[in-house]
Amino acid sequence: GFVSIGGPAECVLDECALTPCGAMQTCEDPDTSVHSERDFICTCTADTSIKRTGAAAKCTHDECSNVPCGTTQECIDPNPSSTSTGDYWCVCVNGVRAMGGPATCEMDECTVNGNP
Question: How far apart are CA 1 and CA 19, in angstroms?
């Protein structure tokens, strides 16, 4: 776009007009001159400490990505919001579960092998 009030037109490039940050984020373009590109700042609305310049911010955090339950248990993170921590579940094959850390998966080998 451009702006002209009583003189030559001044070109303006507001990168936030194209909504580069996406949903659940705010966008700020501190310098709208045509010579300033990729300087827009995306900020997560749920956690304003999470920001990124020139691209959308990562506003989610899957606690299971670090494999906190080990490789023998399933990890379930019901709320991957960046502000939600410690609410993941570790689930054993036999259904035993624990929140926020590995579950104690005790199995009766006799029952598993079909012996009474």
Answer: 16
